[in-house]
Specification:
By secondary structure, the chain is an alpha+beta fold. 51% of the residues lie in helices and 15% in strands. A hairpin with a 2-residue loop joins strand 2 (106-118) and strand 3. This is RDD domain-containing protein.
């Protein structure tokens, strides 16, 4: 095997990956809330509490009508597409990192092969920037697996080097941004 094309990286801990996801979740939740509240304001809806519970928090109770459920599904789909767009642009166009990953020093790079060199150190081949197509595949699998109640991120507990199923399918890996120190 020819290792000249690869680069050494540190594998981030599960805690770092989780915190990065939480940062991104809160950023996206704030964006979602802002968009929904703007739509409410522009459309003249006055009952903010009911609307917020249905469309921001997505709470369903016995008083939720079929029409409300349909609207909630549309909002949820639009939100999933927004999240995909956010991840595609960040991973492809912003150096391989969403804001959460960037703040924690993480990056997504291409990975055909990863070889363990030392504990938490891997040689990643080819370790290049992620293309738009690869970023799109990764984002769609990640976000629509969550929407279908199969959290694909849990698979990082079972694959080598904390890779998830969507990383393996897309040919990517999450690493510490600065490589090996």
């Amino acid at each position: 095997m020819f290792f000249g094309r690869g680069r050494e990286f540190l594998i981030p801990s599960l805690a770092h990956r989780f915190i990065a996801e939480m940062v991104d979740f809160f950023i996206l939740f704030f964006i979602k809330a802002t968009i929904i509240l703007s739509i409410m304001h522009l459309s003249g809806i006055k009952d903010i509490s009911k609307f917020a519970m249905h469309y921001i928090i997505e709470e369903i109770d016995e008083d939720t009508s079929m029409e409300d459920l349909q609207k909630m599904m549309i909002v949820a789909l639009i939100y999933r597409l927004l999240v995909c767009f956010y991840e595609i642009i960040c991973i492809w166009g912003a150096g391989g990192a969403t804001p959460g990953k960037f703040l924690l020093g993480l990056q997504v790079v291409t990975c055909e092969t990863s070889v363990l060199i030392a504990p938490s150190r891997v040689l990643v081949i080819p370790s290049s920037n992620v293309s738009m197509t690869t970023s799109t595949v990764r984002a769609l699998i990640k976000n629509f697996s969550i929407a279908s109640f199969f959290p694909a991120f849990i698979t990082l507990l079972f694959f080598q080097h904390n890779r998830t199923a969507y990383d393996i399918v897309a040919g990517t890996i999450v690493v510490r941004r600065n490589g090996v120190r």
